[in-house]
Amino acid sequence: MKKFHTLLPEGSKFNQILCAILINFPVFVYGASIGWMSPMTLLLQSKDSPKGVPLTESEVSWMAAAAYLVCIPADVLLAYAGDKLGRKLLILFISGVSAASWILLLVSIETWALVLSRALVGITMAGSYVTCPIYTKEISENHIRGTLGCLVILFHTTGNLFLYVIGDILSYRTILWVCLALPAFHIVLFMVMPESPSYLVKKGNDEEAARVLAWLRCRRVDDVKIQEELDVIKIEQKNDEESSKFLLKAIFKDKILFRAFRIALVATLAREVCGAIPVLNFAGEIFTWASEGKALILTPNQQAMLLGLVQVLGSALASSIVDRIGRRTLLTSTALISGLSMCSLASWFVAKHYGAYTPAWLPIVTLCLCIFCDSAGLQPVSVVLTGEIFSFKYRASVMGMTMGLASFADFIQMLFFKPLANSIGIHVAFYFFGGICLVTALYVTLAVPETKNRSLTEIYEDLRPKSDKDSIKSKYDEDKYVGSFRSINIT
């Protein structure tokens, strides 16, 4: 039987890592698209704007909000398309849309082109957080799926920092050409990558699924481990066929699925309402409020660089430790630290209002801690966790629904954070974010099972309601008693 590795040793993880990197490369480009807003908004609103006249606040607001608005329906549509057309085709589509957004900016500098380009970013946003994590999970072995699953956040944050750096040293059009080259380069490379084994099994192409698994695992097609993994995928999908065809009905009717859905929803919303989104988007204003009367002045580019570097460090830490300490521990600890940081910052603003002593370093430390925890735990673990607690049938749909709600939450924060902070006080907003994080830490401790290196069956056993476990145990004890009684009678 043909081997699917030559220079690589049997069982090597190289092909999985390579595939995961290329799967998540569109997330890097998406991160650059998000990072583009920071330096380019300043340029487009200046007297040196490439448009000829500075953009108005209204035009910039539409540019910022367009991606989040489009992302809401795109989350659901891409989840559906991924199950129907395949993960690989959708990844190529995402890179194509990304290329189109940069081409549009090269072709026109008019307001409609700027807003439409940002709207296309909403589609790449949906693909980055729906399609890419699912695809990554489905090509990864259990003991490294956490590490590879965290690549989505690492690539996002690295893309942000990449754009912050080149945005400070390159011209407007040069940046656009560099960013256009990235998705074009990816499309060419990704053509040779395999389809998801789970999708191939779903389509009845078991032989191709076995060949893909053999290539990913660097083993022979007839290797017993390949056959065992293929059997697990088949059993998982066979169980899906026995459930309701209406996904929402099946989720709300089944106690285990509903508990899994609640966990995915809480983890996803906590990721978006932990305070990181307004901190990243309104860092300039927050630093300005915090530095009034103090020697704590950072330029907008210094702020972006600082927060971007903190994000990258956080996401790099997550990738390196998530498969060692587990999802539950990482999510609980980062939510707790983030909550305490937000409450400390809120208290700092209250103390400052009443004229008490307020150390100048505390706002920067707490903001950086919030961003670090978001990148090190809240973001990556929520993505990995959602992919691990659902089977193929539900995975994409749940990711689409939860990400759609997350996008709506982001849009609301972008729209109302500044007005509310100005009217009722920024300390109220930070107390709210801190409270959300602390409640999340408590919820994870009480309700979320550990998923590290565990199969779906093992995870669902933990999610089974106690009453069901007791009834199963009672049935087992009854059968055992009856069997013993019969053996006595026979004797």
TrEMBL record:
**Which ranges does the record mark as transmembrane?**
21-42, 62-82, 89-109, 115-136, 148-166, 172-193, 263-284, 304-322, 329-349, 361-385, 397-416, 428-448
Name where it's found.
Cell membrane
Pfam families xrefs: Sugar_tr (PF00083)
Enumerate the SUPFAM superfamilies for this protein.
Answer: MFS general substrate transporter
Occurrences of domain Major facilitator superfamily (MFS) profile (ranges) = 19-452
Q: Name one GO cellular component term.
A: plasma membrane
Keywords from UniProt, A to Z, are: Cell membrane, Membrane, Sugar transport, Transmembrane, Transmembrane helix, Transport
Enumerate the InterPro entries for this protein. Answer: MFS_dom, MFS_sugar_transport-like, MFS_trans_sf, MFS_Trehalose_Transporter
Q: Can you say what this protein is called? A: Facilitated trehalose transporter Tret1
Organism the protein comes from: Papilio xuthus
